[in-house]
Design brief:
Length: 268
């Protein structure tokens, strides 16, 4: 069983991509919608919320969890991997979304200017800048917070002119910097991928998080046979939310591109 966790609905972009490549595995998706967005929360709160989500998914039989949330990956993942798992769940694994995106970025040749757009928590942590410089110290990394995008997306305002106007304003500084690569450092942002690419023009490559994370998961499963995560003849796909089921279904089905048969509400 593979768990996918996000503060809200954004992680469905990752799940959708994974299901296209690895449809025959068992998955549990957990959205902590009641406490979303995480991007404006403190590091202590994000770590506490993420730990509760991890515990819940492990209790449901998950052996591997993907934290499909950049804020949680930036503010909680390292501590969970280095301190919490060895003490509480030494036989389980938790992965984030930042490292695969960073590795994909530095593999692109002749890149000197990288843009990062994300939540306040992700940008202020400087995790992307730190990780990028570990692999290529010569990169110029420019970051921009975009705090309003997650609430707008969660409200289903993808096609509203107000959302496109706000997005354009957020991207303006990165466009002026003439960044060659843009990392949409939030799993909600792929819902706006076409608009982001249009605004940044063909002179900037906008990374596709879903494709990159899926490719990373495929390779991880190949390398870690000890987890014994195998395809199923009758694959399960379960959904949990900490908030309103009706709203989760309505927006989630649109984002996922398929019907969601069953959703349960949980309290972490």
């Amino acid at each position: 069983m593979i768990g996918i966790f996000d503060s809200g609905l954004g992680g469905l972009t990752i799940l959708k991509s994974i299901l296209e490549k690895l449809p025959n595995y068992n998955y549990i998706y957990l959205g902590d919608n009641a406490r979303a967005p995480y991007g404006n929360k403190s590091q202590e709160a994000i770590y506490s919320y993420t730990k509760e989500a991890v515990d819940f998914l492990f209790s449901q039989g998950c052996k591997l969890i993907i934290i499909a949330c950049n804020s949680a990956s930036a503010e909680a993942l390292r501590k969970i991997q280095q301190e919490y798992l060895p003490a509480k769940h030494p036989d389980k694994r938790v992965l984030g979304v930042i490292r695969p995106l960073v590795e994909a970025t530095v593999k692109i040749p002749k890149i000197t200017r990288v843009g990062v757009i994300g939540t306040k928590a992700t940008v202020n942590s400087e995790t992307y800048k730190i990780e990028l410089h570990k692999l290529n110290s010569n990169l110029q990394v420019y970051q921009q917070t975009a705090s309003l995008l997650v609430p707008l997306i969660e409200e289903g305002w993808l096609k509203k002119p107000e959302t496109k106007m706000i997005l354009k304003k957020y991207l303006h500084s990165l466009k002026l910097k003439q960044v060659q690569i843009l990392i949409p450092a939030c799993t909600h942002y792929p819902f706006l991928l076409k608009d982001i690419q249009r605004i940044m023009t063909s002179r900037c490559k906008v990374l596709n998080q879903g494709e990159i994370i899926t490719h990373s998961l495929v390779n991880y499963l190949k390398r870690h046979s000890e987890l014994n995560i195998q395809p199923s003849t009758d694959p399960r796909l379960e959904f949990y939310t900490t908030d309103d089921i009706v709203k989760f279904r309505e927006i989630g089905e649109e984002f996922l591109g398929r019907k969601i048969k069953k959703i349960e509400r949980v309290q972490l």
